[in-house]
Amino acid sequence: MTITDAPSADELRHHMADRLVREGCIRSKPWRAAFLAIPRHEFVPAFFVRSQGRLHEYSQGDPAWLAAAYSDASLLTQFDQDGTATSSSTQPSLMAQMLEALDVRDGDTVLEIGAGTGYNAALLSHRLGADRVVTVDVDPHLVAAASGRLRQAGYEPTLVAGDGMAGYPERAPYDRLLATCGVGRIPTPWRDQLRPGGVIVANIGCGIVRLVLAADHSAGGRFLRGLATFMNARPTPDTVGTPAGRLVQPLLTWSGETREITLPAVLDAPGAQFLSSLLHPQVKEFALGNGDQEVRCLFDPESSSWARITMTGAGVMTARLDFGGPRDLWAEREPLLAHWRDAGRPGHERYGLTVGPDGGHSLWLDEPDGVSWQLPE
User: What is the pTM of this model?
Assistant: First the structure.
């Protein structure tokens, strides 16, 4: 489709859908029809886009607003008092991949965790019928706004203000569950509210996993291609995490035990980040420049354990480790990264996850009965 100098919303929507098909994100006609039918711009009257380290603001009426609304970008729509984003409209290419991974069939019921703007619920409603869709969000203000926009678009799925980690048992069992927020582990209520053979697609760490529920309520499956990090699920609307900025000075000055270590991998490598995020989904991690040295900081809010990794050799994987608290975060992380290195740095799509009937999570490489690691609760 040719885009004119001043494209309309319809032209931009067709262009977006065509691009998602070409890139393989949309693989089926029903989802293409949904992306063509739902006006994304009506769900995001104002938003920010992060680009090149800066936030760019767009609002209805701005000359670039409409084109930005149909760009393949995550649109940030709400922030807390510290400036941390708490809601967004997901990048369309990622949204399409996750919807395709759900593998819905006509007549299926879907529970969505994280209503956000309501755009994803509109896509689900177009595909399955609004009466087959339930979407939950912890923030009642988001739920009210999404409800109004969905109604304006002609859809009235069930919207619930509540803790998404508890699901929504009133409409269970469901055939599919889609989480558009980040979780450290798959909550037991999600499995309890899904039919055997049902599918969960969720973000854990910086991976997207597709799990199929077995008759014994275990669930297993592989990670999708591509890495992504959603905003973490919040137990209450006013839950605020500790911004990384507040941790910089303490983590650079705290004193504790010290030892020399050899890094098994470049910590910024996508594979290393993927595995670290699965092992430690709640650990805050950031890198700082301290003079001529790079410093990697880790902090576990639950145990107040911390680690500071200071590179000590130019081009050599040697570092000084300073750490404190009840957990040795680096000692927990190092064996998994060393195995990844020794296995030839396999791509994350070769990894899978099994959630046992008791809720324990195990990560595996290539096959569920192959080499595996029990992930901490």
Answer: 0.91
